[in-house]
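My main concern about presentation is that the manuscript never shows what a single data entry looks like. Each protein is reduced to its one-letter sequence and a matching series of backbone shape codes. For the editor and my fellow referees, an illustration may be useful. For illustration, here is how one protein appears when written out as sequence plus structure tokens:
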Amino acid sequence: MPRDGRQGGGSGGAAVLKVGDPRLEAIQLLDVRALAAALYLSVATVRRKVKLGELPQPAVRIGQRIVRWRLRDVRSFLDGQAVR
């Protein structure tokens, strides 16, 4: 058991929030794992869809590897992609 007394394994007890969950509204920026979970996709699929233009580019870049998407940007992009 870790020194802090928590059981090992998992993602540290963080809840996975899905699209439509009101708690997701409070989060303004999503990392790739949170975006993937919210869209029911794998991280690799999210990265591929961004590269193909099927999802928006990240709004925030900190260096080469740290990126974040604004929830409102993702929603706006997906609303524009909806089948008409």
